[in-house]
Amino acid sequence: MSYYLIKLFLSAGVIVVVTEIAKRNNAAASIIHSLPLTSLLAFIWLYTETKDSALIGRHAFGTFWFVLPTLPMFVLMPLLIRKLGGFWPALITGIILTVALYALTMRLLKLAGVEL
Fold first, then answer.
1. Cα 18 to chain centroid, rounded
2. How far, in whole angstroms, is CA 92 from its chain's centroid?
3. What pLDDT, in 10s, does the model give residues 6-22?
């Protein structure tokens, strides 16, 4: 049980640290946020629990393909915030766009014979 609490607090701590830094220095927070911290933590926790390097490799490969459909949201958020009148409408639109791009990515990967 304590292992899971450590995982929870370390993983959540990353989010808290990034949001607190963003309040003071957006550029520094953006750099930290752009790091694949969630992926790195997931790799570490998964390897610690399974010792399965091949699983980590497959997970990294799949993560690569699913990072791509998220990128347009980051580019479009400033525009969506201005055009849609605020954060929440922009976020909802960004999520819908990302889900649609995930579906497209999965279809294209299947057509290309890429197995995740």
1. 14
2. 16
3. 888 888 888 898 899 99
Prediction pTM value:
0.77
Q: How far apart are CA 42 and CA 7, in angstroms?
A: 10
Provide the residue ranges of all domains of the chain, joining segments of one domain with +.
Answer: 52-116
CB 65 within 8 A of CB 105: yes
Task: With CA atoms as reference, report the closest residue to 105 among 76, 58, 71, 74.
Answer: 71
62 φ/ψ angles, rounded to the nearest 5 degrees? -65, -40
* Cα–Cα distance for residue pair 31/29, rounded to 1 Å: 5
Any idea what DSSP says for residue 1?
A: -
What are the helix (H) ranges across the chain?
A: 2-24, 26-34, 37-50, 53-67, 71-84, 87-111
| Residue 69 three-state SS | helix
Overall average pLDDT of the 61-79 stretch: 93
pLDDT band for 101, please (50, 70, 90 cuts).
very high
- The answer to whether the Cα torsion of 89, 91, 97, 103 is positive or negative is negative
